[in-house]
Each structure stands twice: as structure tokens, then as C-alpha cells.
Amino acid sequence: MDLGIRGRKALVFGGSRGMGRATAEVLAREGVQVTIAARNAAVLKQAAEELSAAAGIAVAHVVADLTRPAGREAALAACPDPDILINNADGPAPGDFRDWTRETWIETLDATMLGPIMMIRAVIDGMIARRFGRIVNISSRSVKSPQAELGLSNGARSGLVGFVAGLSRQTVRHNVTINNLLPGIFASDAQVNHVKGLVEMTGRPYEELWQERARSNPALRYGEVQEFGAYCAFICSAHAGYITGQNLLIDGGAYPGTF
Length: 259
Fold this sequence. Notes:
alpha/beta; Rossmann fold; 2 domains; 7-stranded parallel β-sheet
């Protein structure tokens, strides 16, 4: 399927690895002018080179931290007036809420709620003026299926999707959509770090926890980041203009509800 976005510009935060990188690759293969943003300069540069070779089109990169005003400004300087924005940042580690200070909460809000909202604020009017925009927030299944050890994520990410629920109904008439993707367990660096956090909390072996999480999913496996990238790219496509304000699960059927 031709996604109908060839020649569009995309800014992908967290584009150097995992789900962000997979999304950047699919967009680039569709002829989108992709700029990936992340904090680690060396990893970012290597990812841009590899993505450019894989997609056959130059993929730009910029060192930028979504959580900081200077980082957001740097990203927009590298990719002015993006048609597609992927908000994506590392989630907080699992833990016990008794250990989280006010500073811990503010740091999490900056990464998973306030940073994305500030980016939306920066690009939305330009998208409306051009009558095309696709904003996707890579969030977490914890929005719909909260886990006790992920209280930071449960709270902050729910704030973002609540904000999006209102704004997205105002922008869709201008062909600007805003959606949230809620991934479950994926074979990614983020999942590795999550399981390492569980090891610290429980004292159980890493491999035991890793395999247990796969067995507990109806698909009996972890998702592949390429699956996520393809889904995300479709939500960014010209064919997805009637999808907005949605919290879209991609979790192998792990969420147990009907609605």
C-alpha cells in the first residue's frame, strides 16, 4: 500500500533505537523526509547512517532532548514545520510509589506528558495551515491496563492522553489527527530495562522474568519493533485522516477487556 505521504517531513523523537527507529525506517522507505532526534550523539549518528542505507533516502539526525526547551528548539530547527510528529521518550523505571519524590514525578511528567504537549503546541498551527498533520504519541498499555510497579507511567501518560482527547476533536476538521499508540511487551531496549528493574525489585533471575512475560501474553511472544513501526506509519498516512483521539493498543491481545 502506498501510504500517500511521499515528500512529507517527519520528526521522530527516540528515533535512534526501538519502536522509534522502526517507525522512522518505514516512513523513510515511504519517501518521507525523516529527521530522528535522540540524546546519545554516537548512537544517533550510527542509526541515521544505517537508516539512510536501508531506506535509500537520506535520514537526518539531531541531538535533542524532548524533555528540555533547548532540546525541542534544536529538533524544530533541524526539522522546521514537520507534517508528522512522533513523540517518544523513555518511560520511567518500575518501583514503589513510596520512594518517588516530587522531583521524580516532575521528571516523569516532563518526559511523558509536558514535553509531548509542548511539541504539539509548537507544530499544530502549522499543520492546520497546511491542512495536513499526523501526531502520534508512543505511550504505553499502562494507560488502559495499569500496573502497580508502573505508577509513574500510569499517572503521567494518562495525563497526556486526557489532553489529547480534547484537542484532537478540534484539529481533525483540518486534516490534523492526534493519536496515542499503547504498546504492550516488545523486544526492545526499553523492555530489557523494564525487566532489569523487576529483577532489582524481586531478586528473581532476569531470564526467568523475561520468559515469564512472553508466556503470559496470548501471542506467547514479544512484539517485534518492525510490527510497531508499520502500524505507526499507517496512522501517519494519508489514509488515516478519520482516526483521531484514539488510544490504540498493540499488545498481542494482552488487554483483557472488550472495550
